[in-house]
Design brief:
Rossmann fold, alpha/beta, 6-stranded mixed beta sheet, about 500 residues, globular, 2 domains
Length: about 500
């Protein structure tokens, strides 16, 4: 069979697999409730108003798997019938327990018109609904816990959800809408790095704290003293990956796969390249998933011809299909390394056997070291299964805002609290602290794909316990006053 035909067969195989599981994947199995469809959204990204993208319970934003009870609950919420909304949303969660939108609306319905502190969560519902749900689960869990414990100094926390469609212009308009609403004290968002970078100037100008749980680009560091993140930056990730490559695999030559149209992908690619080259390694090949002539078979062969000793996926979530094709072509010839975007159930279900042994750098893992075990246990009870790092980091972002509101319930007060050198609070991943740049001072963990007959997909991510992880420690001699140090396993 010719190389062109082989590639075509691989592509068709992948498309068939993807089509068979279309509709979004979760880490856990779902019930099969009676469902209704949300009204079709015929508007475009540019024409939909910011207000139409925002809800505290009066409209459904996530159109997947809507139960009859959820629809009735939202209808009651919009009419101001909060007891009925509570009853119906509770019934919906009995059928669909892993629905974070329903839980947030239920919590808000219980607050009704009483005084509350409000924050907002912009997520990519329109483009990456599975990711949006992962983020919302972390926020919903934090809200549920604080409100059940009596609220923040006796006042409950209300959550607004927004759909930014992973679109920079939409995100900026939403950011201005949030800023113009004096009731909103903080923002948990955004998801993608380029979206957070686009919206950051709006938050900074208006003095509204925004904490991204998932944006890792280096360019977000120092974007403003109102801009924070609970996920470590790409500098942490690439430091850990490069050390593993050089010191554990004992290899030097790497081939990189990335997406030139992605802020995140370019950031992590540049950081990894700098880190590897400065420590004696070499990048022998680069392949751009966004290139019109990208060919997975040719890309893998080129990497092998150039002497590559590993393939490194530094792509974003929109080009995972291309990464899966490359893994299939590679057929476990060369070791695989990756950034955190590949940590998704799709990787296990679609790529499966082709990525066994792949090492991925992530901010958090349920079985990782220095985690808060209480969070994982509570998450499992609440959602009926395990959660991933996006949920954990969103939980941590919400906990950070809760800590700020508790100490000083004003926009400026929250910023001052989070910026203090001695600030810390407890989250899913242990202690939360921020550097002066707004970055999270948190170790990166390495996980590995292994065969697991007991898992839903037959494969799972497990901690690579002997991997080198790094964090930032003050007091070292460097231009910023901070430096990376190894943490011994």
């Amino acid at each position: 069979m010719t190389q062109k035909k082989e590639t075509t067969v691989l592509l068709l195989s992948l498309l068939i697999t993807v089509g068979a599981i279309a509709g979004g994947l979760l880490w856990f199995k779902k019930d099969n409730p009676s469902q209704v469809s949300a009204p079709p959204d015929t508007s475009t990204t540019s024409s939909r108003s910011a207000a139409g993208r925002l809800s505290t319970g009066e409209k459904i934003l996530i159109s997947q798997d809507i139960t009859l009870e959820k629809q009735a609950g939202v209808t009651a919420f919009a009419a101001g019938d909060y007891p009925q909304a509570v009853a119906k949303l509770s019934a919906s969660l009995q059928k669909q327990r892993n629905d974070p939108e329903a839980l947030i609306y239920l919590n808000n319905a219980r607050i009704a018109n009483n005084k509350a502190y409000s924050i907002v969560v912009p997520t990519p519902i329109g483009s990456e609904v599975t990711t949006a749900k992962e983020i919302l689960r972390g926020v919903a869990q934090a809200q549920t816990e604080i409100n059940k414990s009596g609220g923040i100094n006796g006042i409950p926390l209300k959550i607004a959800i927004a759909n930014d469609d992973n679109d920079p212009e939409t995100a900026k308009k939403l950011a201005q809408t949030f800023a113009d609403n004096p009731d909103i004290l903080g923002v948990v968002g955004h998801f993608a790095s380029n979206i957070s970078v686009a919206a950051a100037p709006v938050y900074q100008k208006n003095g509204l704290v925004a904490i991204s749980p998932t944006s890792t680009t280096v360019s977000l560091s120092g974007a403003g003293d109102y801009i924070f993140r609970t996920v470590p930056s790409d500098l942490f990730t690439t430091k850990a990956l490069a050390k593993y490559f050089l010191e554990k695999l004992i290899k030097q030559k790497a081939a990189i796969f990335y997406n030139s149209t992605s802020e995140y992908s370019n950031s992590i690619k540049n950081a990894f390249t700098t880190e590897l080259l400065s420590n004696g390694g070499d990048i022998v090949a680069e392949s751009d998933f966004a290139a019109a002539n990208f060919n997975p078979a040719n890309a893998v062969q080129q990497a092998i011809d150039q002497g590559a000793e590993a393939l490194v996926f530094l792509t974003n979530s929109t080009t995972l299909d291309q990464a899966f094709l490359v893994a299939q072509v590679n057929n476990r010839q060369l070791p695989l390394l990756s950034g955190d975007s590949i940590y998704k159930p799709q990787t296990l279900q679609i790529a499966g056997k082709n990525v066994v042994g792949m090492v991925v750098a992530v901010p958090w893992h349920a079985q990782g070291k220095n985690n808060n075990p209480g969070f994982s246990q509570a998450a499992s009870r609440l959602w009926g299964g395990n959660v991933n790092w996006r949920t954990a980091m969103a939980y941590d972002a919400t906990q950070s805002l809760i800590a700020g509101i508790k100490a000083n319930p004003s926009r400026q007060g929250i910023q001052q609290i989070l910026s203090k050198a001695g600030f810390s609070t407890t989250g899913a991943s242990g202690t939360i602290k921020f550097l002066p740049s707004g970055d999270r001072n948190q170790a990166v963990q390495l996980v590995k794909v292994e065969v697991d007959p007991n898992s839903e997909f037959g494969y799972t991510f497990i901690p690579y316990m002997k991997a080198i992880v790094v964090k930032v420690q003050p007091g070292q001699k460097s231009g910023t006053g901070y430096d990376f140090v190894n943490i011994k396993p």
